[in-house]
Amino acid sequence: MSKPSDLVQGTLDMLILKILALEPLNGWAISQRLKQISSNVLGVSDGSLYPALHKLQHRGWIRAEWKPSENNRRAKFYSLTRVGRQQLEKETANWNRVSAAISGIVQLKEA
Amino acid sequence: MDIQQWLYSMPARFRSLFHSNQVDQEMKEELREHLDQQIKENIARGMSAEEARRMAVRAMGGITQIEQQCRDARGGNLLEDFVQDLRYGFRQLLRNPGFSVLAILCLTLGTGANAVVFSWVEGILFRPYPLVAHQERLFALAGTARGETGATELSWSDFQDLRRSCTMCEDAFVSKITGSTLSVGDHAETARGSIVSANYFNAIGVRPVLGRGFDTSEDLGSDSHPVVVISYDLWRDRYKSDPNIIGRMQRFNNVPHTIIGVAPRGFYGTFVGWAMQFWVPASMEETFESGGYKLESRDERWIEAYVRLKPGVTRKQAQQELSAIGARLATDYPATNRGRNFAIWTLWETPFNNARTLLPTLEVMVAVVAFVLLIACANVANLLLVRSFTRRHEMSIRLAIGASRVRLLKQLLTEGLILAALGTTSGLVVAYWCRHALALLLPRRSGVAMYLPGQIDARVMALSVGLCLLVTLIVGFFPALHTRKLDLAGPLKAESAGVVGARGRAWVRSGLVVFQVSLSFVLLVGAALLLESLEKIRTTSPGFTTTSVVTTGVSLVAAGYDEQRAKTFQDELIDRLSALPGVESAAFARVTPLGYGTYSSTPIAVDGYQPSLEEQPALEYNQVGPSYFSTMGIPLFSGREFTRADDENAPLVAIVNRTMVARYWKGEDPLGRRLQVKGRWVRIVGVVADSKYESMREATKPFFYVPLRQDFVRGPALNIRTHLPLPAVSATLVREVHALDANLAVYEMITLQEQVNRSTSPQLVAVTLVSILGGLALLLAGVGLYGVMSYAVAQSTKELGLRMALGAGAANLLRLVISRGLRLTAGGLVFGFMAALALTKLLAKLLYSVSPHDPMVFASALAVMTITATSACLLPAWRASRTDPARVLRD
Hints:
CATH superfamily of chain A: Winged helix-like DNA-binding domain superfamily/Winged helix DNA-binding domain
Shape of chain B: elongated
Strand content of chain A: 5-15%
CATH architecture of chain A: Orthogonal Bundle
Strand content of chain B: 5-15%
Oligomer: heterodimer
Largest sheet of chain A: 3 strands, antiparallel
Largest interface: A-B, 32 and 35 residues
Radius of gyration of chain B: 37 Å
Strand order of the largest sheet of chain A: 1-3-2
Largest sheet of chain B: 10 strands, mixed
Number of helices of chain A: 4
Number of strands of chain A: 3
Helix content of chain A: 55-70%
Number of domains of chain A: 1
Distance between the termini of chain B: 61 Å
């Protein structure tokens, strides 16, 4: 069982919320989208995606419903709830603050 | 989690809890869908179907693990896991019904014993008075006197002054137990009631269901308000729930009373030990109190009372204020109140009812049942531990397929919880049945059982639930300890705990047995000490004859006799009785020793004795008739007995006991010396032996007697020395009394031995209860030891077979197993011995002339424990000796 690195662990939730903020998707599509936009850098395994989805659903941030997929099979589509949207805003703001601070430190010139 | 998010998360949580199968199915479908897509994509990339599938599965990681992670991710899943664990736990219990029943029985015993004792403590000590409001602020009120230990009664005037001046008291009320013969129709019986102040029903917040309580003025005057409130039970049983009862006349103590109210159902008054049946106002005091005290007299003390403090006032603050009031009264009325004061006690220390006598017993019981519960827990933990060995396979597999250790722990605790909850529930049922059982252990008086109800209220329930959780932790802990050592390869390894070696995991089980043995030993020692002490009490001479003397009384006060009539009657009755064949002598006395009555007490002054400045000598004394000492069999050392001639017209005289001679006359013969009693000088005419006065456990104390005629009471006890059997004496007495006055009733007649037995009944209760529980504890420990040894033998048949094949005889194996069992026992005995040495001191209050460290008692407990342990090991040992080496080695 592969575990994502700590950084990804913390941000995976935010990435999923962000992806779902654009449009409702099923699990497969989310995994494809993750790979696309992160250009495979983050290396999110499918193994950690589904537990994360279930966790988010149980926190009330996303909801799921069964709908026919593109190839006309039943698929579970996830979409963002209102509290999920608020959570995304909170996490994005947080991320921006932290990443700005880190990049500030990383760019310090050595004396 | 804020409320909004919580609302949004509800649907998912709800579904996973109640439709867990469906949710699980959907999850699997979702994962399959993902896998299919991946395979399709892989095929599109040009892989073979076979390879596409393999790669897809590898990309995902183990499906089963992901499934489990998803389950775990669902909101932590506490509740869902719990429900699942519950279902699983119940299935486990049903699979092993024998085990489950045994475990639940053990826990029922432990929690039940605790719940019963809690219900007694609650119903007798903490909340003894059903329907009475705010008992947590209620305190018993009585007096103190310098030079006397314990409580004295109060005078009505002092009580009134206190009630007026106390700012910290919400209210104060009088409640003094009394009795009356009650004839309704042609059926007469004794009824118990209380003399109360007029504010009684208001103060305790009890409204009569019919009629009214007392008016404020009804406790004033002398015998001026013959009104009575009766209990619901009396109304129902004796008046057939007559709806027109109010206003009806009923004779109490031969005085017609108007029934003005019926108390609500379930209200039994304010006296621990007896259910009250009627209440009369204090103005009727002279009708109901044998002392015939006057309300307005400050030195006539008869009141027992309660105060309810205002919210937030502590007992200490209130006591300070009461002491100040008492000190002021002592200055204002030095003649009657010097050296006297007020004191309050918590309800469970109430000095004037059975709370005080039962308190030490119940204290010990709380400790004893805690022991029993621990022993029961150890047994169940042992049972669970055995089962956890047999379940190692299952546990290892669950670990292997992805269950976390925390999850396994939860599972084990849940199973413990199921057992504990079932045990506690049935324990509470047992407690409900036994809640009134305490009264059964105490002697009846005049054919009436005591009223000592246990209460199973919210507090007792809460405590039981708390115990249930504690039990869960204890019994769940040991198997859980075991999972720590579980590894995935576990099922492949074989467990072998040798009979002799017993290392490794067996030490937990052995430890539990050692623990059980030591606790049982402590209980055994406790029971043996109490038994020994009761034996000593019952065989020690109280200083008077107990076998051929009976004691009773005649209802002169109730029949309305005045002093003169009572004197004439008493003389005539003694003459008639003494003339009867079979009766040696008969004598009246105000109080029969060791009875319920309280002695008169007085400050004394002694000719030639100079008390130190602080000392205010005060003694108790008894008013006795002619030939009292020969009737009672109390030896006379010098001087003479009282005679008929020592009447109200003769010079005042007294007889003292030897301890008094030693204390006040330095052992010199006091005949002819003077003593001041109640302010009057009396002359000593005799010296008698010391005896027991109020309790078999009291130390010898100075005491004296005055002639009944010179300090008269109308309702003394009658003692008769005779060799006739009790029923014959009783019939004779009734005949003689009725010959004098057919309206008189004779009270219950008992031998003095019975009187002694009754006075030691708290000890009997303690002995009975501790013996029962000690016996059960012994049984549990025996079962525990048996279990451990049986298991050890069953586990090591191979070793035993080998030993046998190598030449060990059956006797060797028998000895081997028994000696191992006895080693465990010996370990337990060492700890038990130390614990008992430390703990038996707690019994000191219940012991009589037995040291808490009595070597004989310890030795016999040791013997009993060893015998029990040996017999517990016999069967496993016998089984070991029957091992068939050929078969074992073949297997």
